[in-house]
Write a structure and sequence with these properties.
Elements (H helix, E strand, L loop, with lengths): L1 H25 L10 H7 L2 H9 L17 E5 L5 E4 L3 E2 L7 E2 L7 E6 L6 E6 L5 E6 L10 E4 L4 E5 L10
Antiparallel strand pairs: 1-2, 1-9, 3-4, 4-8, 5-6, 6-7, 7-8
This protein binds zinc ion.
Length: 168
């Protein structure tokens, strides 16, 4: 009986994943910046490619952006679209750069089941590259959200410097 329950549970998880994939395909959107994976591979470093295009995760406490609190803008390391204002950064203690909100309309939410349960994946709304995940344990005084972002996915542009043009 226990085995049967296990089989049913596994089947349910597989079905959920299949369903999720179908839904993603049905609603696949057109991004402003579209490149083939071969083109991305050429433009990005191996680590950037792994994180941005294959939804990898950098090791915690490795990004120099963890300790970057100067005023400025964080742009997508793939297409250079502005994603975060450094004013919205906070120290989450997790070892990943954390923000309580994105620049409005610039970051897309998606669902991923990689760990076997639903998590909110954050992607660049301009090129669809993976940035990190959103959690509900952010600062309660502001949004309550924690955008847990791979530093490798972001480039910091200090205030006063021109933002780069979108890499099309
Ligand atoms: Zn992008």
């Amino acid at each position: 009986m226990k085995n049967l329950i296990y089989v049913v549970a596994v089947f349910a998880i597989i079905s959920c994943n299949t369903k999720a994939q179908e839904t993603t395909e049905e609603t696949a959107k057109e991004y402003t910046v579209v490149k083939s994976e071969a083109e991305w591979k050429e433009l990005l470093s191996a680590q950037e490619y792994n994180i941005l295009r294959q939804a990898g995760t950098e090791r915690p406490f490795t990004s120099p952006l963890n300790k970057e609190y100067k005023p400025g803008t964080l742009v997508c390391a793939a297409c250079y679209a502005p994603l975060y204002d450094n004013l919205n950064k906070f120290d989450s203690g997790t070892g990943w750069p954390s923000y309580d909100r994105a620049i409005e309309g610039q970051v897309e939410r998606d669902v991923d089941y990689k760990l076997g349960y639903a998590r909110t994946e954050l992607k660049c709304n301009t090129c669809g590259s993976h940035l990190g995940h959103e959690f509900n344990d952010g600062p309660r005084k502001t949004t309550g959200k924690r955008h847990c972002i791979n530093g490798v996915a972001l480039n910091f542009i200090p205030e006063g410097e021109d933002l780069p043009a979108i890499r099309k």
